[in-house]
UniProtKB/TrEMBL annotation:
Pfam families: adh_short. Keywords: Oxidoreductase. InterPro entries: NAD(P)-bd_dom_sf (IPR036291), SDR_fam (IPR002347), SDR_oxidoreductase (IPR051911). This is Oxidoreductase. It comes from the Eukaryota. The keyword DNA damage does not apply. Belongs to the short-chain dehydrogenases/reductases (SDR) family.
Amino acid sequence: MAPLVWLVTGCSSGFGREFVHEILKRGDKAIATARRPESLEDLKKTGAAVLQLDVTWDQNRINETINNAIAIYGHLDVLVNNAAYVLGGAWEDLSYQDFHDAFETNVFGPLKVTKAVLPHMRARKTGTNIFISSISGWNGIGFDAGYSGTKFAIEGMAESLDDEARPLGLRTLIVDPGYFRTDLLSQGKLKTTVSSIPEYAEASKAFNQALAGINHKQAGDPKKGVAVVVDLVRQEGVASGREMPLRIALGQDAYEVIKNKCSETIKLLEDWKDVISSTDLD
Ligand SMILES: NC(=O)c1ccc[n+]([C@@H]2O[C@H](COP(=O)([O-])OP(=O)(O)OC[C@H]3O[C@@H](n4cnc5c(N)ncnc54)[C@H](OP(=O)(O)O)[C@@H]3O)[C@@H](O)[C@H]2O)c1
């Protein structure tokens, strides 16, 4: 198999960084990107090509950056839309701008970067677009709307992309990790607020304490998680002889959360089937 050329967003830490190490380990080419180029110095030393890319840049600047990326190895096979951050807080405490900023990074970022690579992949009739979503893209919990909303959006957008681009030879993969030990919930990365509204104060405090308690104690190993994703793309290891699915959950917690959501949804449909089925025109 010829080496694949990958571009990964958000490589300053966490999954992004692990992707680059795993990609290079498999003999593929990695283009590591981050909004702070200085955070990529050590990845450059391990053999990755590096580029500055802030996913909140405008479409023209992102197109230019992706064209520069494609020029490095002459083509691009795999895009990993990885960059994102967690916005916590009650609906009433977060401003429209807070929500807007989270969508700008977590949704419109992947949208713009993917739009920049699609013409290239369409012309080559091959390519894989990966979207790192979350269990928060399946299940909304209190004080998580600013993050969960973005991941639900990505789920639907990526699923639609798969339906329209699969006939052209392009693959889409949505990755739904549970809790993995990265910097996602660390001070400086996590954006969250304790409610100033008395009715929410206690629950909001408990939410923030829970996140702080989980930080750097998550069960998920990012190295193992990215190895599964690289296996799926390369159809080797755990994925040898198997077609790449549209979605893959990662982690036992993700399995439970998504299974419960599906079971609850099926129960809801069955409990209300008579009503649900009653609204067609006579
Ligand atoms: N870890 C988990 O438990 C978990 C669970 C489910 C889903 N995920 C998803 O996994 C992905 C990676 O997160 P992680 O866990 O590896 O956390 P992380 O260590 O915080 O990594 C997030 C990365 O996104 C980058 N980023 C943020 N805003 C950006 C922007 N505007 N432009 C470019 N890069 C930007 C960060 O760069 P800076 O250093 O510049 O901020 C950082 O490199 C995210 O999509 C996250 O939602 C993680």
